[in-house]
Each structure stands twice: as C-alpha cells, then as structure tokens.
User: Fold Aminopeptidase N from Streptomyces tubbatahanensis.
Amino acid sequence: MRHRLIVPGAMVAASLLLAVPASAAEPSPGAPGVGDPYYPDYGNGGYDVSHYDLRLRYQPKTDELNGTATLLATAEQDLSRFNLDFALDVSEVRVNGEKARFAATGAHELRITPAEPLAKGEKATVVVRYSGTPSKVEVSGFTSWLRTEDGGVAANEPEAAWWWFPSNDHPSDKASYDVSIAVPDGTQALSNGTLQSKRSEAGWTRWNWRSRAPQATYLATLAVGRFDITTAKTDSGLPVINAYSKDLGEHAGAARASVERTAEITEWLQGYFGTYPFDAMGGYVPNTDTTYALETQTRPFYSPDDFADGSNTSVVVHEMAHQWYGDSVSLKGWKDIWINEGFAAYAQWLWSEDQGEGTARELADYAYASRPADDDFWKVKPGDPGPDNQFHSAVYDRGAMALQALREKIGDKDFFALLKGWPQQHEGGNADVGDFVAYAEKVSGEPLAELFDTWLFQPAKPPASAAGLKAKAAPEQPESWKKIHTADHPHH
Assistant:
C-alpha cells in the first residue's frame, strides 16, 4: 500500500519554493541602456519594440508639440519596470490599458513602472501622452531639433528621437512606424515612407505617413514648414516624394537639380547593391543652417549648404547608398559606423567613375597621397574610431580606401558580388564589422584579416603597397574630389 507523507507546514512551504521554475523568478528592472560602449545610456534593456504609432499636433509659430505615442513591445525578461529615451514633458503613461507610474531620470530617461510586471515573452502596449517645446530642450548641452522660420525638423545622428517621440533609441531595436501629424492649413508635414492620406478639418491638415520596413530610431524624421512638394513614380511604381523649403533662396535651383535625380541615382545604385529595399524614396531640403546631410530612411535630409556651390548629385548618391548600407542593414553598435559611412563614401567614388570625373582608384590614390604619415588623420581607426571620432573624415575617406584595397585584393568579380550580396544577406537586420570581414572571406575564398586590420584598426598610415595601392608621390586631384567633400560629414 502507498503511504501518504505528512509534512509540517514550514517544510511544505520550503518544498513549494524549491519547486518554483526559474522562469518565475522575481521580476527585475530593464537596464537603462543597451550597453553600447560609445553611448552606454542610449537605448534600454528588457524589451524589444516592433511598432511605433505616433499621433502628433504641432504649431509652427510657437514650436509647441503635443503627442500620443503607442509602442508595441515584447518583454525579453520578467520586467518590473523599464525605460524609454525621451526629453519632453510626459502627462500620462499606460501599459496594457492601465495607468503606470513614471518619472524622468538621468539626462533623457523616462522610467516606467507598470501596474503589473510584464512576463518574459509578453506583448505589451505602451501609451505615452506628452507635450513640449522641442527647441527649448537641451540634453547634455545640445539639441537635435532644428528650428526654422516656418517650423521645425528632427534629423541628427546618433540621436534625434528624444525631441519628438519616446523610444528605445538604439539601432539594434528596429521597428515599423505610423506617423500622423496635424499642422495648420498651408503648412506641410513630412516623415518617412509612404503618404497614406491627408485630410483638412477646422483649419488643420493631418498628414499620415507609414514606414513598413524595420527602421532605426535615429533614421525616423519629422519636418514641418512651408515646402514645395514634387511627386513622381519610378519605372517599377514606387512613389517618389521630394520637398524643398519655399525660402531656400539662391540654393533652390541647385537643390532641385540634385534631389530631383534621386530616382535615377537609386536605379543606378541598384546595379551595384541589388534591388532597392524600401517602398518609397525621395529627399527633402529644409531651410536650416546645418552643414550635413543624413540618410533618414526613404527620405534623406539635406542642408541648403550641400548645394552652396551648385548642383551636387554626389551627396544624393551618398545618402541613397545608405538606404542599403546603414538603413536596411544597420550597425549593431555605434563602433561599427564604417559599414555605414565607408560604403556610402565608396558609392560616391563609383559615381565619379561612372561620370568620368575620376576613377575609384584615382580617388583612393589621391586620398592616400594627400595626407602625410604624421597627419592625425591616420591615427583614427575606421573600424573602431571612438565616439569623439565617429564622424571623422577618416571613417569616410580611409574607410573608402579600405574598400578600394579590398577590390584590388580580391578582384572586381568577387568585390562587386560582395557589394550586392551583403545587403541581401542582412536585409532588415543588423551587422558589425566582424560580420562583414567574415562574409568577404566567404565570398572571395581568401584570408582577409590582415588587410582589414591594416586599413581599419591600425592607428598608422598603411604602406603604399598594402593590397596593391601604388599611389604616385603627388597624383592630380580628381575632378570629383571637391564635390564629394563639399558638405561636412554628419555629426551631432
């Protein structure tokens, strides 16, 4: 016969505690940063966002922004609380319909404690209601909100989201977006992706934009002002939307002559990088006093200064090349910036070659010869430049030289197969420099660690013979050089 074991109460309780599975451990807070060594407090731990729905209202005269952001997220641990990156004033937060406690902490953190902890794997809906005057908000002494005479623009790298929507602000967490923005009639509102609808009521016009493909937070953009908007379709039927501030003055003609060639340039780039990865394209030029362009997804931002010396298709090539290298395939961490900028810079070299204004080899030789060995330029390591040098010219020019060295080493057939295969291999995802090196070795069948170490990781000028580069002592400056270097590289 079976005997029933009688256990004292305390022993029963202890037995039950021992029986609790590890997954039911006490919920804990998500980390206030993803641990990026360049920007430790950027992004957050404990969850992943799959979609942002932003419903906004903006008054250009006063720069007042009101918004409701709805984030669809999945808990990656048993989560007692979590952070969002945000800098405006918050009035209410709800998690799964219930009010949550919240507090502003650190330089740009919104700490949220839901009424009930989230279990690992649980899908959550987070609603944040907020308001503020973005141009009056500074974080660590700077702002990424660009105030204009007729509105405002959010476009900067590595951060811009904090001034207009709460987010998990790191490229490793990509999501789709719906952006709906109401502005006074007669004012235009631009964002990424496709324009779903536009409707006017009671003196306000609401613009509804949708980005279906995964998109990093810094690649989300918002621009409000008085724009001339042009629309067209590519031969394959994709919508092309370009916009120009009405007060660009003497820059207007050159800006239009450049940005209106976006579809043509993108078609040309497809020959090198494969099928364009998104469902819309274009560009916009607001009247800002900035000196950089930025690859905001599907609709790059350009400064008027980019066209100060006349038309500049080279900068359009650079930003549209980023749609593959940087946008569709995003970096895993900010130290991997070379797989964005080195390739976009090299695309400009290929365009120069196509236009008969200097071959990629000639540009590489000139870039190499124009800087002596003791120039600080060579101390910057493109493969890990450090946060202070993330957008240093070496990341662009030495980064492009590295690709020319690779081309010389493995030959055109494998090199161009590599350029086209890489975006397909990681489409919609993230990758790092090591991933690219491994892929290059796989495609070429050659050991390449020494080549990449020489060009990307050594703080010294590589020998001229490295990987076949044989620069003359003083090669002639290629015709395209000044065009390529007209605008400063993106920086914050």
